[in-house]
Amino acid sequence: MRVGVLTGGRDCPGLNAVIRAIVRKGVQEYGYDFTGLRDGWLGAMEDDAVPLDIRAVRGILPRGGTVLGSSRTDPFKQEGGARRIKENLAAREIDGLIVIGGADTLGVAARLWAEHGVPCVGVPKTIDNDMFATDRTLGFDTAVNTATAAIDRLHTTAESHMRVLVVEVMGRNAGWIAIHSGLAGGANVILIPEQPFDLDQVCAWVTSRFRASYAPIVVVADGARPKDADLVLRHDAPGNAEPVPLSGVGEWLAREIEKRTGKEARTTVLGHLQRGGTPSPFDRWLATRFGLHAIDCVRDGDFGTMVALRGTDIVRVPIAEATARLKTVDPKLYEEVGVFFG
Ligand code: F6P
Fold first, then answer.
1. ipTM for the whole complex
2. Residues 131, 223: one domain?
3. How many folded domains does the chain comprise?
4. Are strands 120-124 and 217-221 parallel, antiparallel or unpaired?
5. Number of helices (H) and strands (E), helices first, in the chain?
6. Residue 317 belongs to what H/E stretch?
7. Which key words are in the record (predicted)?
8. Which residue out of 170, 247, 249 has the highest number of ligand 1 atoms within 8 Å of its CB and is therefore the one to mutate?
9. Residue to mutate, 234, 242, 275, ligand 1, most ligand atoms under 8 Å from C-beta
10. Residues 262, 171 share a domain
11. In the structure, what pLDDT confidence band is assigned to residue 190 with cuts at 50, 70 and 90?
12. Is residue 327 part of a domain?
């Protein structure tokens, strides 16, 4: 049996730990051969492949990024892309393909399986944690740790100068990183894409925090936007199905807070720091378990399936179902953490 592996979409910590677990179990337990496809679907389309053996995965468990490279290439947007992937995999005698990716990459896997019979198994990853059908996506825990550590540090400098510190975290469509790191880091305001915010309310929270002699920390997801349509900085590009993130919402917010409250404000954009570096112990654990179960799906011929975390169990769900909708922050959860605002 020969198994292909690829990592697609935006990177996150823990991808290498999945690759290692797949190869270790596949070689040691089942005697399979592995081929890595470089740069996501691009390598599958262009037949850019590397051998993956035990030696190739040695020492990669704690390494961030992906040894296979990644891209956001969509073969369904390329002439004959799906057909080329099918032909390349057949020529290499690949019997199963493990696809480690987010909603876009796995959406392609679902279609390749349903429409072209390409035997795919999915592993869900994104620091945003917004994939439906799994309690956690790979990379989220590390990103929350990174953001929380940053917020902890920003408290002390904010207090020294009695300034507002606005921290912009990632989260285009869902505020999971903002809400988890904001709660863990003791933020005084948390703004998420699911709940358009009222600038006057934000300023009222900031002011009340100063009145209590504290320097406020405002955590804002990069996809959060104000309620007032006139305040939205950038609109979706015409013909672009994916919402364009508000670039610079953190800086914009700091300027508005300064103008409206008269208090000094600074912004820290955490950006790609949240995607880089070594995975947390939880993400290494999750990655390893996802990898071990993914290779078992291949062994069982259970294609069109994605591994997912439910409670403490790893389960199998149809990829098509898992990629059909986003997992966003429940308004009740947002209301629950709102007790700490202001
Ligand atoms: O991984 C998803 C994400 O973290 C979003 O939250 C963020 O808006 C985006 O990546 C930015 O990624 P890039 O700069 O690589 O396009």
1. 0.93
2. no
3. 2
4. unpaired
5. 11, 11
6. strand 313-318
7. Cytoplasm, Glycolysis, Kinase, Magnesium, Metal-binding, Transferase
8. 170
9. 275
10. yes
11. very high
12. no
